[in-house]
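Ticket #4471: structure export looks truncated?
Reporter: QA, pipeline team
Priority: medium

Steps to reproduce: submit the single chain below to the structure queue and open the exported record.
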Amino acid sequence: MRKVRVMIIEDSSVVRQFLEYVIRRDARLEVVAAVGTAEEALRILDRVSPDVISMDIRLPGMNGFEATQRIMATRPTPVVVVSASVEAEDMKISINALRAGALAVVEKPVGIGHEHYESLAERLCTQLAIMSQVKVVGQRIDRGLRFGPGGMERVSCTPERIVSRTPGPFRALGLVASTGGPNALANLLGNLPADFPLPILLIQHITASFLGGFVSWLNSICPLSVVFAQDKQRPAAGKVHVPPADHHLRLAGDRLGLDQENPVCAQRPSGTVLLQSMGQSLGPRALGVLLTGMGEDGAEGLKVIRDHGGYTIAEDATTAVVYGMPAAAVRLGAVHESLPLPDIAPRILELIAGKEVSR
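Actual output as written to the record:
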């Protein structure tokens, strides 16, 4: 079995050697290059042909955000941001690297003697192995966003037609995203008005330590207010409610609920948990959207919304960075419409306005 070829970009020689040690221990991976600057990495990128890149954030000269942009423009390669810090400036660079096309942000493993060493090392190696399988496509960046086809579970899908129905008085919008989600959410939320008439409940799979920076970043780029959800809180129109780290988010009647019950689809928070609760609580008044992501989280939940008379949209294969979660929903018959990412926000506004559009 061919090993995954990893390039390490890390300015500290000590940390670089440590990452080499961690990665070489994993039977799935091999290190084909380990360099101290983004400029050096770009010079040898074509020659070493890595399957995936481990990217530091604070680099001399070109930083991790700029390096990710350049890689996506010259030789698109899956990038995993590996950061030791959640300080404001590092978080800003990390999240903007996701926006530029990086697929995930993970914590750097701590020293071998640390109690969390094994779990962090395993998480890093697993992310590198999984993300190496994502097909990334470079395009001209529009308004700082990057979209590209590809994914581990790519299947043929023709966008579905609108069925003849009345959308109904929607009471809440549920959004679920995973790999590639920050980009997708920047587009979707950025195209909704500040006076959006529904509360938005959002699940984004992201490393817990980076969640606060992600919420701050969303607040800085979209007109809506992005807040952490609170238990027994009434969700507010025009606000995006995000669960705190390691908590499921549910809707029960007109209140939010938070809990730490078992992960679903290996995720906590889980999109399926959220969307199921919305379908059960709101019935035809629930509107659910499933964006790019690996695996199947959210698909079963979207099916519950549809089965209870609500309306469901999945991101189409033509724009999903990873067409895993949307594809799973399509296979279940959970999707009313599959739409390219730029069409989703306009369609949400049409549905809320009660418009039936012939497609």
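Status: closed, not a bug. The export was complete when the record was re-opened. Leaving a note from the reviewer for reference: Confidence is low (pLDDT under 50) at residues 139-167.
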